[in-house]
Amino acid sequence: MGLPAFQPEPTEYVSPENYLRLEGEATEKHEYFEGEIRAMAGANYAHNLVCMNLGGEIRNQLRGRSCSVVGSDQRLQILSGNAYVYPDLTLVCGLPQFNETRKPETLLNPTLLVEVLSASTANTDRGEKFRYYRQIPSLRQYLMLDSLSIHAELHTLDELSRWVLTETRDLAAVLDLSSIACKVPLTEAYQELSGL
Q1: Beta bridge partners of 157
Q2: What is the 8-class DSSP label of residue 98?
Q3: Number of folded domains that form the chain
């Protein structure tokens, strides 16, 4: 008879209220998924550069319009408080809505979300996070950019409420961010990155 299979320690359930209280006191960011708190790993140089390149290009195109772009310190609520996450970039068109009234910190109504993929986050960003993101009524597009190679995956909600994937590895491609009326050359997102 072999050894019993390893059984991880059960994770103690944490309520959304306790998560928000703990997160308000924390010095590092944590995401929350239906009772489980997960520490966020730091990002590498390539990841940060892709985020800043894309965010800067989008911000330039949005000047004078009623859309805004914010970075990875913006917390987002999903599923009426059953999940809280920090996307790499969040775009909101129109008036941002928050779940707090006195000290707004948790956004409710993104239009476009962006995740920059790394080896440690790619599976979660493509799977679990996208499953949560699809439940946000205001969300119209979800963009994933690989930080290790030229690769863009853009999911767009069509008029029949289907998520349609447009994927490219062509550095000459232009991303059609129709939800915010922007067209972003992929070269802008990957500029200054050598070896890709």
Answers
A1: 163
A2: B
A3: 1
